[in-house]
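Recall from the previous lesson that a structure prediction takes nothing but the amino acid sequence as input. Here we apply that procedure to Deaminase from [Mycobacterium] fortunisiensis. The sequence below is the only information supplied.
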Amino acid sequence: MGLIDIELFTTLDFVGQAPGGPDEDPDGFAFGGWQAPLIDEVAGAQIGASYEGTDALLLGRRTYDIFAGFWPHQEDGEDAEFAATFNRIPKYVASRGKPDLSWAGSVQLGPDLVDAVRAVRDRHEKIKVVGSLDFVQTLLREKLFDRLHLWVHPIVLGSGKKVFDGGAVPTNLTLLGPAQTSPNGIVCLRYGLAEGTPATGDMSAPDQ
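The prediction returns the following tokens.
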């Protein structure tokens, strides 16, 4: 059985909407492309390293459409290595409609999303979920992921879709290693799914 990694770019107030560009998800949102001014060489290298060994993508419909319109045309550009990987590996798309799956290697997930995702995990070793905030809520709710990577950026937007927006349930996570930082203040936190649900206690109680 493989591992499902959720990669989320977020602000300090956990807005994850449209980090890449103003036209990515403009629905009631004025800050599309908020990530672009903050990316530096160190963060770029860290992001690139996180995709090493990836052999499948799990994507929501909106993110898939953005990727399908971009990556097939980048194999001779600055992002050629990313493009070669994304164009080569299978892409699994969560959609209630009928997406255009002309991007080579694209497959629509079946109507039973939970079972379909489990089948993908059985089929591949390292699966990446990128963006796809609506789809991510299902994965969080079902605890259908293995690792959660949060790329936290040093800005507060005050509005926009949140990375934990309707899908969060009581969940334990464990930090997989020290936080990684970049000169522009981006912090990468990598967590693994842990058993059980959060415990509670009383900070005012004397030590036993």
